UniProtKB/TrEMBL annotation:
This is Amidase domain-containing protein. PROSITE patterns: AMIDASES. Residues 21-177 form the Amidase domain. The lineage of its organism: Eukaryota, Viridiplantae, Streptophyta, Embryophyta, Tracheophyta. InterPro entries: Amidase_CS, Amidase_dom, AS_sf. PANTHER family: AMIDASE 1 (PTHR46310), AMIDASE 1-LIKE (PTHR46310:SF9).
Length: 426
């Protein structure tokens, strides 16, 4: 059941636009919402927590990413609910309520950009801004049955965006329409329109799809049939990603040995180690940004969030240098694998969204499976798009495409080209 007319998506509603233009702008007539992690002049950036909002003043400037959208003619309709301090992927917030997933009201919407995803899925806005550090655009896009784009690391300005972990923080966006997703990208990435380029190869990460609880005929086979129809069967390739990562990212050894006791049997050890390295560096960087405030204020955090934040506050710098080596080696390995116009296909998430009433799980074992998938783009800094593929057992499912760093325009064009054929093939 829907709790409120806005599905609980909004923290604060307003209408913000620059002076109406007499000529057509790229985003004229479109509305959007903004995750409450972006500065907007005159409004407190709440970071999903009332103690944070209480101890911080209103912003004196607007984040460049938001300004770009306003300058392009879009109208901002408000700020959206998020997980506290962007430190979860469920979309649950004990203070402001959990936004209702319009596609599956008994399931969580995904986080931490929960309200932004819900606002788009519920058709309250045409698109929205979120951030993706570990998973915070890709997961809610998957859970809410919409498109979600995580750009290449550094491609969109994070100035005026509260940091979570600078090595992974990106500004991402949601839309229901691939054409709008692409138009937003042109504005945020400051890119001209370019003609689509045929992918040289689309590589199916077979071991990653084996982690999914969704039958392959609803994911892999839909994608393969669509690719063959549009680009020819020769475009489809297959790979065991875990083997490639094990061979080409030697620094992962430091995390494979350490994490054996938490190993989940069906996850390739190299991908589990990649997840461990990512989460270690994120905890360490989160601590550097926010430990002083957390220890001074002792804020009220919700269950699950509290444990994870306090674990981060206790993080040490052990193995941090190896985390950076992993990132460098992984980017080189995936760049060599994909080439200029190759794409890697994998599940966005390994299964269906959890039920809203499920107890929050904090163990590393639980997070290993989703993050072993999500850390591929996160750790390499590559761009990734989550594409909805209808429903399975009455909940949304999705597939993801990953392209090399800096190939955002190529990937956005590919989604626009591929989208309708995917939906027809489901």
């Amino acid at each position: 059941m829907v709790k409120r007319l806005d599905y609980g998506a909004f923290m604060e509603k307003f209408s913000l636009q620059l002076s109406p233009s007499q000529h057509q702008l790229p985003l004229s007539g479109l509305t959007f919402a903004v995750k409450d992690i972006f500065d907007i002049e005159g409004y407190v950036t709440g970071f999903g927590n009332p103690d944070w909002a209480r101890t911080h003043s209103a912003s004196t400037s607007t984040a460049p990413a938001v300004m770009d959208l306003l300058t392009a003619g879009a109208t901002c309709l408000g700020k959206t609910v998020m997980d506290e301090m962007a430190y979860c992927m469920y979309g649950v917030n004990k203070h402001y309520g959990t936004p209702t997933n319009p596609c599956a009201p008994d399931r969580v919407p995904g986080g931490s950009s929960s309200g932004s995803a819900v606002a788009v899925a519920a058709k309250l806005v045409d698109f929205s801004l979120g951030t993706d550090t570990g998973a915070s655009v890709r997961v809610p896009a998957s859970y809410c049955g919409i498109l979600g784009f995580r750009p290449s690391l550094g491609a969109v300005s994070t100035v005026g965006v509260l940091p979570m972990s600078q090595s992974y923080d990106t500004v991402g966006w949601f839309a229901r329409d691939p054409k709008i997703l692409n138009r937003i990208g042109r504005v945020l990435l400051h890119l001209p329109d370019v003609d689509p380029i045929k992918p040289s190869q689309i590589i199916i990460a077979e071991d990653c799809f084996r982690l999914s609880t969704i039958p392959s005929d609803r994911t892999v086979q839909v994608l393969v049939k669509s690719i063959e129809k549009l680009f020819g069967a020769q475009c489809v390739k297959h790979a065991i990603l875990g083997d490639l990562v094990k061979d080409k990212v030697p620094s992962l050894q430091h995390f494979m040995d350490k994490g054996n006791e938490d190993q989940v049997d069906d996850i390739p050890p190299s991908l589990a180690a990649l997840s461990s390295a990512m989460r270690l560096l994120q905890r360490y960087e989160f601590k550097n940004y926010h430990a002083k405030w957390v220890t001074k204020v002792n804020p009220d955090f919700g269950p699950g969030i509290s444990e994870r934040i306090w674990d981060a506050i206790k993080a040490t710098g052990e193995n941090i240098d190896f985390c950076h080596s992993v990132r460098t080696e992984l980017r080189a390995a995936l760049t060599a694998l994909l080439g200029d116009h190759g794409v890697l296909a994998l599940p966005t998430t390994p299964g269906e969204p959890p039920k809203v009433q499920a107890n929050p799980v904090t163990s590393d074992i639980f997070f290993s499976r989703p993050f072993s998938l999500l850390s591929v783009a996160g750790s390499s800094g590559f761009c990734q798009v989550s594409i909805p593929l209808g429903r399975y057992d009455n909940v949304p499912l999705a597939i993801s495409l990953v392209a090399k760093h800096g190939s955002d325009a190529f990937l956005l064009n590919l989604v626009e080209t591929l989208y309708d054929t995917l939906q027809e093939t489901i």
